[in-house]
Design a protein that fits this description.
With about 625 residues, the chain is of the alpha+beta class. The chain contains 21 helices and 22 strands. About 50% of the residues are buried.
Amino acid sequence: MFQEYDVIVVGGGHSGCEAAAAAANLGSSVLLITMNMQTIGQMSCNPAMGGVAKGQIVREIDALGGYSGIVTDRTMIQFRMLNLSKGAAMWSPRAQSDRMLFAKEWRTMLEQTPNVDFWQEMVVGLLVKENRVVGVKTSMGLEVKSKTVVLTNGTFLNGLIHIGEKQFGGGRAGERAAVGLTAQLEALGFESGRMKTGTPPRVDGRSINYEMMEEQFGDENVEGFSFTEDVNLKEQRSCWMTYTNPEVHEILKTGFHQSPMFNGRIKGLGPRYCPSIEDKINRFAQRDRHQIFVEPEGWDTVEIYVNGFSTSLAEDVQHKALRKIPGFENAKMFRPGYAIEYDYFPPIQLYHSLETKLVAGLFFAGQINGTTGYEEAACQGLMAGINAHRKVKELEPLTIKRSEGYIGVLIDDLINKGTEEPYRMFTSRAEYRILLRQDNADIRLTAIGHEIGLAGQERLDQVNKKLEGAAAIQTFLRETSIAPAEINRILEEKGTNPLKQKVKAFNVLLRPQVSIHDLCQINRFRDFIHQYGTDAIEQVEIGAKYDSYIKKEKETVEKMNRLENVKLSTSFNYDKLVALSSEAREKLNKIQPSTLGQASRISGVSPADISVLMVHMGR
């Protein structure tokens, strides 16, 4: 019935979709197996993509040739660039999406991708021969052969949903849990654990009084995520903001005795940076209010997502408390919030390629690795799909360095440090965040995507055009002098010292108060600079403002790359090196780093331990 596939992807969420698309676009034959064809690419939680650090990840996915940025741009109902009052390294694109259109667009794009086949059923086991995966087994007893398998099971592995004292099996509201895989993986020697996440109630927007709330508009300048497509967003839907209050908190506390979080029924750890409302009240007892973001679910629906009110309390407590929030006095719930527990596998059991160390050809991506968030899942799926294809073709795996992308930071953190709580990406996790901006993701990664065959020539040409434009503008500014009579009025308006003599225009741009827009008030600068695209102009401006910081980070990267270039055996017995600390020996034996740089980032391995390794290597 089935051919032998190069890659089988198990799961049709954000991770599975990117994995299937990447492997197929690279030329592998792909079978995407999902329990429900109607929920491919579904936004299980909030109807939004991007945000702090997450927006950078979506742009990186796009630069490499993935689909998430394009899908988001085609289905967004609002766009905002966050943190514009801060430095460029913190600017983060975020979009509200139409939930139904988002899933529809993902399925359409996958169906239009050659080499992708689909099958609707639960996968209950793997076919493993001599420590190598050779296919999967389905709930109907079908066996499908493949050279590699990518598991992207999300929250479905032995998923258990909690609402107050009620609990029932499920991977998502209205969908059953996936069973069988965890037990087999444990029998193969994998360590597993439990994690928890949650979602808020959904509300009928017709029953909300928006006059009691603060309106949040989208940006006038809609940039979008994809570097290849122009966003056609002529109108936007507003979001709204309101707050809880002490009365809301007191009502919620009446349900704490039934809470699965507080009475011990939930064993898994939840996301530290996206806690439930009951967890917020418990942990931050000194605060008398918490923000609630009211987010529309799409263009043609009245359904509202109550961001900030994630909860697993009993539904009647949820409803009573919700109605005490300003604007929600007459709110009608479509469905209550709930918590969900699920199995995950600590990611230190993986290589950088996301291939498992125990079973060759088997890849893990997304929440199965202990991460949370659509964007974190999608980028893992992309990398797993790329590397599954490369495994089939007997090519070296692709690894993104920490200095090349947030994708590299995320994967490196996971496999070196593991995680005991849902991992979420932040700009603070990246030591080179001035280099890893959302505006230059194409410059950093498109050449890599093109080299492996995922990003087309047109994409690369576009990046080169941007680089050439930026170089031309910078050369012009460095070589062209500007006279006091031309610029002093502008400088005084900006509150910075006037010139006393001619200087190069680039030196004027180095001043924090002066922008390229200011220089373009002078005709000859405007005529030259406006020949080029806004993306090229932005690169010059950011490059000027952060010139010294960028140089310093590049120097740090070069130093670290010296350690990255020192290869280590992945089968070395570190117990032989008695000069290492006992913790270092334990961690190094467990993780088996491939480079000295990777060893230096393992929790518990000190600089002194790295010195011991360098002496051993004859350095």
